[in-house]
Structure formats: C-alpha cells, structure tokens
Design brief:
The structure is a homodimer of 513-residue chains. Chain A is α/β, with parallel strands linked by helices. Chain A is built from 20 helices and 17 strands. Chain A has 3 domains: 3-164, Rossmann fold (3-Layer(aba) Sandwich); 184-315, TPP-binding domain (Rossmann fold), CATH 3.40.50.1220; 339-512, Thiamin diphosphate (ThDP)-binding fold, Pyr/PP domains (Rossmann fold). Chain A has a 7-stranded mixed β-sheet with strand order 9-13-12-14-15-17-16, with helices on both faces. Chain A starts with a helix and ends with a strand.
C-alpha cells in the first residue's frame, strides 16, 4: 500500500466521505488512490476558491468535515479567502495540499512555495507529511483537529513522495472529545446577574443558533426580560415557522450602537462581543455601551445547548409558547422591485427546509424579518467578510444537504469572484437557485465612500462601478451549463423562482435591481 | 494632507503611473485621494488574481512597476497565486493592501487576518505603515525595493487610519542602484572555460532574453561552439525576424535530460540551473548531466547584457550575421487543427510587435519553433506554474504596451481560474486576442496520471475532465462584454484571427482542438 492509499483509507475510516478537489500533477497518486478505493465522493471545482467555499458550505449543513484536495502553495493560496470565511464560521475542514516531493523541494522548482506559510494564517493545525509510513497517522490527526469543537481548519501538506512511496499504514480514527460544558459556577453567576433585572441581552452565535438552543434562549428571555440577538455574521441560523425569530447585530455602526444602547449586561453564548466590521473616524470600535458588563456563558467550543438548558433550569425558566410568526406572506407579483418585496416573495415561495446562502451584501440587509414567517429553513452567511463566499457555500451546502433546495442570495460584484461554482452546480446537478441582485456597482463601497465625505469623481466612480460593460449573468450561467433568465419585474421574478423550485438542478435568476 | 494623499503623491513621484485595483471599504480614503490627485491610471479588476496578474504583465512590458490596490488579508490572498508567478518572473510590483485601522486590529473584527503573513511568502519587502506621517516614506521605500534589480515584489500594508489621518508627508523617490556588473574575474574564468572547447551551453534567463543580449550570446556561441538555450519559463523573450531564435528547456523530464545530455559546461546568464518542474519516481531532479560543470556568468540581478558584452570581448567574438529565420510561414487555411498548423498560422498572421501571453500549457508545447520566422514579437510565459496567469498577464501587457496587439494563447482549464480578466479587457478596450485551446480536459494531468502508471477509472477521469457540461467560451466572453466566436476549422480560425487583428479592442476565439 502506498502513502496515498493509506491516506484515503484513513480519511474514510475517520468519517470523511466527500472531497472537493482541484488536483494537479503532484496529487496524481492521491487521485489514483481515490479512483481505486471506493467510498469517497469527489466533487471537482474549476478554481480553488470554489473548492474551499464548498467545503465550508458542506460542513455547515452536514455537521462533519469534508476534505479538500488542492495543488501546491499557489493552489492553496487561491482557496485562502474562503478558508478565512470558514475559520470565522468555525467550520471543520481538512485540507490536503499536494506538494513537491521532500527531496525535490530544496531544488526550488518554479511551483515551489512556502505552503505551510500560506496555510498558517487560516489553519488551527498545519503539518507536512514526512513519509508514506506516517501519512495515515497524520491524516487521522488532521481529522481529529478539524472536528475539535467548535470546528477548525486542519491543513495537511502532502509531498508527492509521501503519496507514492510504498509502506503506507492506515490509521484508526482518533477520538474527538465532546464539547466541554460551561462551568456550573458560571451558569450560577449568569443566572444571578440576569435576576437583577437590569437591561440584558443574550448574544448568540455558533450552535446556539440551532433550533433547540434558540428555544431554550427564548425561555430564558421570557423568564428574565433579556433580549435575544444573533451575531452579525453566522455560519447557520435556524429560521422560519416553528423557530424563534432572531435579529442580528446590524452591520452599520450607528445602527449597531443603537440596537445595543442601554444594554447593561451582555451574555455571550457561543458568540464574541460585537465590534465594528471596520473602524470609522470618530466612531467607537466596540458596539457595547461603556457601562455594559460583558459576561461569557459559553465560549464557541462549549456545548451551547447544554449551557442554555442549565441556565434555564437555574432560572426556573419553564416552557413557553414560541412567538407567533404570523401568517406566511403572499408573493409580491406586481409593483416595484424592492428588498421588502423580494423578502416577502422569498418567504411566500421558498420550499420547506430550504437552505439560504446569503451573500447579498447590501441589498437585503433591511428585510431579514420578512422571512421570519417562511417555512422552516437554515440561513448561512459569509462570516469572514472575504468576498466570493456565497456561490461556493451554496454549492457545498447542496452537496451536504441533499433533497433540500438551496437559495443563493447573491450580490453581483461578489458573485464575480467565484462564478466558476456554477459549473460545479451544473455538473453535479445540484438543486441551487441563484438570485443575482444585479445593481451593477459595488454598492457597499459607494456608501462607504460617501461616509468618508468624498464627493466622488470619475476615477473613484470607475473603481466602484460594474457597468461598462454590463455583466450579462444569463450568458455567464449558460456558458457554464446552468439554465438562467433575467427578471425585470416582480411578476417575472415570481415566475422564475417558482419554476426553479419545481425542477431539479441549478437555475440562475438575474434580478435587475 | 492626509496619509492617503501623501501616498498617491509619493507613488507618482517615484514613477508609478498605473494602479490595478480591487478596492474595499478600508481603502476608501486611498480611492478618494486617487480621485483628487491627477496622474494615476486606475484599472479595475473584478477579482484580485486579475489585478496582480495584470501588474505582472504590465511591468514585463513597461519595464517599470505598477501598483496594485487590494483589500485586507483575504483580498491579498486572492492575488497570491499570480504574485507567486510574478516573483518567479522577477517582476517589480508594489502592492498596497488596505487593512483594519491600527487601533481596531486588536478587536479582531471578522475580516481581520494575518495580512503580513499572507504577504511574506511572495514578497521580498513587507511593511505595515505605522502612521500617516510616515506612509509617504514607506511608499518610497516600497517602490525602491520593487525596482531593485532584477525586480521584486514589495507589499505595503495600509491600515485605514494611516490613510485618513492628517499629517501626511510626500517622500521623494529613492535612488535605485543600477544592476551590478558581473565580476571581471568571473568573465575571464568563463572565457577560459569556454575556450577549452568542451560541449558547452549558455542558459539564458531574465534580461538576457532581450534582443541585444541575445545577439551577444549568439556571437559567443558562434565563436566558441557553445549552444544557446533559454530557461523553461521566462518572463519575456524577444523573438521573430531579426532576433536570435532560441529554444527552451523542455518541460517533460526525459526531453530536458535529452537536450542537456553531453553538456560538460553550463554557463548561467540570468538563469538558474534547470531542475524538473516536479519530481518523478526514479527520475533525476537536476536536468544537468552528473559530470556537467555549472558556472555562473551573471546572476539574475546582474546586468546581463553587459556581462555578455564583456564575455564576447574577452573571447574576441566579433559580429556575425544572425541565423537565417527563413521565410515567414503561410497561414494554414485547411486541414486538421494541429499545434503545428496553429503555430504556423500565428506566425503568418500576427502583426508586427505583437505580444504573446502564453498559458497554452500542453497544446502548443511542441510548436514553439513555428513562430521563429514571425515578425518581431515578445513572448511572455506563466513563470511560476500557478494556473490562471495567462489572461491577467495578457490584460496587463496590453496596458503596459499600448499600440501593440496582445495574443493570449490560453488553455481552457487554466482560463477558468481568472476569466474575469475579460471584463477588464472590455472596459479598457484593450487590444487583446484570446485564443482558447478548448480540449475540455486537464490534458496535462491526464498525461501525468498515465505517467504514474494509473489506468484511470470514473472517479479519476471525472476530476480531470472539463466536459459535462461543456464550457461555452463565446457565451462567457459575451457575458463580460467581449466579442467572441468559435472556430472548428483552420479556415474559421484564420478568418477570426485576421478579423481580431484588424479591429481595436478585445476578441476571443474558442478553438476546438
């Protein structure tokens, strides 16, 4: 058995069943091993940013890591931005990065690069395999590291000779410790603080945003008067009918400050204290009022649901009815295309158990509430602010949640970073409906430029404007084998959305806004 | 004057006139400064890999650095692969990477990343600006570092407050030392070694591949019997009528070994001793025979032309006629589409002073000689093996060499990594003819897989095959505003090629091979 074969067997034994890949020459023995050994679903991406974003979306839905297969330092580099997003989402991923043979590396051939150096800023665990005999053990350690709560990125660099040499040894899966529990003393302390009745807020993140944890948080809120809020960006939020509706910390600093104003106690549950996405001259960086006490109930690696259950018990917070979501909205079939109309229409038409991959950036920011009364669904955000997460996350989510329709809410400027994901959707016949909000500009930057007080001239506008030439999204989609059409009215949008939900496979709607 | 304004003034004073940009929020003050201060041409790319590849292509043709404008760590990360290529081409580039304000960084907002960590593997010079008062001086130092012979990558991280704070100071351009001369004793020694008459070869790289240096090398070869060869991958080679035709070290290891077999003396002129692009089991890593002496005449940072002139003089190697290139080939207007037919047709139809940006990978490998008798032209290669260099390099070369037609020889698989470059070509109305060699597979990997002895099954083939669905290149190009058509015969190819050369602006030909 060569090293590559021991690697594939070990990954399978450790529960890795999907490999998003963009292989190169140095990975040919790994490819050959994947070919010979059944059990691994291999999904090809035509760009590494697609591959890593897919792995992020997959694990968010499947709750287990996928592997990626990347080619040398520059191939990994192309995937770093979406690994950054995955790191911020606390997504488990196992990167396998093929590289120069150990004895060839000192010759510094053209593709030789500092692969570990590229990996380190996004990875909690980095190792370069040393020999075929140990690569199996390395792989088991990588999977273990990735699965450590709340989820981490592990990168295993695979020199070509450690793949092709004989002497591979399959390693057994390594035990992953369960999520640690919040300390009982902490729970008691938080209960005591909440009982004081000062204006309080539970800020939820990570697995505290799954349905059971949200229901517990709602009981605590009902018993104490504390408000509930989610972090600004979250890997996955359970939403829709039967779930506790929750708003997020707003992106604009002034709105965030306003939402948090008056809060005297902020309890963190799998979240971090809110800070501005960027600094702005004369505005604070922390969104909490100066006199607000920030108290951790459970860190991201803790068992959020158990912590909330313990807190509810400590508070004697019993079962309460869920807040009434109200009737499901009706689709808006006429009138102007507005964020509110689009939100209501999504709520009206989305199928049960849809998965929303949201990189709408500016367009839908104000209409999150419009989908509270939609059927149950999960909402995935681009968590690290690295542009180009949306389409790959949607693609991977569709692989990780078969049978569920994925709806990718996608800004046009951001879509261009990783549009190659459409091809993977077509090849794998994934049930993804992409809605491109086509405003033909970097709208977020125009507002940011105005915020710095600039009166933009030609040079600035040219750097923020995506027209001249216009991007023709239906052509781009057709060019990659995805059916697509343009909607210039709410009526067309409703028709196309319904059509996309009633047929299998991907579909793209360019919504001109 | 704020820091951003001092930065723009300093870049202009240091001779930077072009900025390839993909800005974000933290760069808005820099964008506003570019807007207010005339003199910088700003070229927008819709993905950072386009931006950095453009800067590479630009500097190869303009012989001076451009700036890039990138957004935070992940924005830089998206540009790393083409910075890797640029590093291998020894291209001068000044990266300006906007980032979190200095005082905001400790709050670890979602987009915060190890920006310097991402920069270091590709940069010879990395600095994070500390204040508005010093950012001008930092910029002057960055340009100086980039211009240091033979050309380096300098990355200046620009925290937002160092851009928006008042107190900016414009810095004067810093002197760049000229390329050092090869030591006279080295020249004498190389002359002595060459006079022994053993089988010798001059291996040329860097600026030794410009026309005057090539002519000197040819005189030396004529006087000593030494052979001439270029490195496998080169930033720029002067070719065509009136230039010395030169072959490159072949990519396949067996061919490279064969070309170098029998060589007893290898003289390096701006080049490095040839090694395999990858290691292969049982094959050597160094392409030189074991008994071959490798002697440096001039390192990449040396003045190659002066070193060759000194060597020619030491050898008494006088003027000799250039080798006869033979008649210009005629276009092949019928018969099968073959690499040879395509090469001859290119030679027949390309305009004077064309610039070839070559990421054809496998397809044209064997037909380099077919263009020796073309009109004078420059040939740019993807030097670091990072896929996705071709289209951006072509785009930047067109900006850096206005009035010259750029011909991008482009493999389809590689094109998908950075296809967004087409939009920049359309927006800037650049004279780029893209020829997509559409074989709908990762052809290089199929041959590599065969080389490892694997008999590929479905899983492996699926990872190396780009059909299902087919990429429709004319649609992709139209979607980004570039005129395009498909050629399925040599006759169509000739017609489309001629048409693209006779009208301004970009054109894409999908050549089905």
């Amino acid at each position: 058995m060569n090293g590559a074969e021991s690697l594939v067997h070990t990954l399978l034994a450790s529960g890795i069943e999907t490999c998003f890949s963009n292989p190169g020459t140095s990975e040919m023995h790994f490819v050959a091993a994947l070919d010979r050994i059944p059990g691994m679903r291999c999904v090809l991406g035509l760009f590494e940013g697609v591959v890593t974003g897919c792995a992020d979306g997959y694990a968010r839905m499947a709750d287990r890591p996928a592997a990626t297969l990347l080619h040398c330092g520059p191939g990994l580099a192309n995937g770093l931005a979406n690994l950054h997003n995955a790191r911020r989402a606390m997504t488990p991923i196992v990167n396998i990065v093929g590289d120069q043979a150990t004895y060839h590396r000192p010759l510094d051939a053209p593709l030789t690069a500092d692969t570990e150096g590229f990996a380190r800023p996004v990875s909690a665990w980095v190792r370069t395999a040393g020999s075929a005999a140990t690569v199996g053990a390395d792989a088991a350690a990588a999977v273990q590291a990735a699965r450590l709560e709340p989820g981490q990125i592990a990168t295993l660099v695979l020199p070509a000779d450690t793949a092709w040499d004989e002497g591979g040894v399959v390693a057994e899966a390594l035990a992953v410790p369960p999520a640690p529990q919040a300390a009982p003393a902490t729970v008691t302390e938080v209960a005591r603080m909440l009982r004081r009745g000062e204006p309080a807020m539970l800020l939820l993140g990570g697995k505290a945003l799954r349905a059971p944890a949200l229901a517990l948080a709602h009981r605590i809120a009902a018993a104490t008067g504390a408000r509930l809020l989610a972090q600004q960006s979250n890997g996955r939020i359970a939403r829709g009918q039967g779930r506790v509706p929750i708003e997020r910390v707003p992106y604009p600093v002034d709105q965030a400050l306003s939402v948090l104003a008056g809060t005297r106690l902020l309890v963190l549950v799998g979240s971090r204290a809110p800070v501005g996405f960027f600094a702005y001259p004369g505005k604070p960086g922390r969104m909490t009022p100066p006199d607000c006490v920030v108290q951790v109930l459970a860190r991201p690696e803790h068992d959020q649901e158990a912590a909330l259950a313990a807190l509810a018990e400590a508070l004697g917070a019993g079962e309460v009815p869920l807040p009434e979501a109200g009737p499901r909205p009706e689709a808006v079939r006429s009138g102007a295309i507005t964020p509110e109309a689009v939100g209501r229409t999504l709520a009206a038409l989305m199928p049960e158990q849809a998965v929303i991959a949201d990189e709408s950036v500016t367009y839908l920011r104000g209409s999150f509430a419009a989908t509270h009364a939609a059927p149950p669904h999960d909402w995935l955000q681009v968590t690290g602010g690295a542009i180009g997460g949306g389409m790959p996350i949607a693609t991977g989510a569709a692989v990780g949640a078969p049978g569920r329709r994925v709806i990718n809410l996608q800004a046009d400027g951001s879509a261009m970073y990783t549009l190659q994901a459409l091809w993977t959707q077509a090849r794998e016949r994934l049930d993804v409906t992409t809605i491109i909000f086509s405003n033909r500009k970097y709208a977020i930057l125009l507002s940011e430029l105005a915020a710095v007080g600039a009166n933009p001239g030609r040079t600035a506008l040219d750097m923020l404007d995506l027209s001249n030439p216009d991007l023709e999204w239906p052509l781009l989609a057709h060019g990659m084998g995805v059916e697509a059409a343009r909607a210039e009215s709410m009526e067309q949008f409703c028709d196309l959305l319904t059509r996309s939900f009633t047929r299998p496979g991907p579909f793209l709607i360019e919504l001109v806004v």
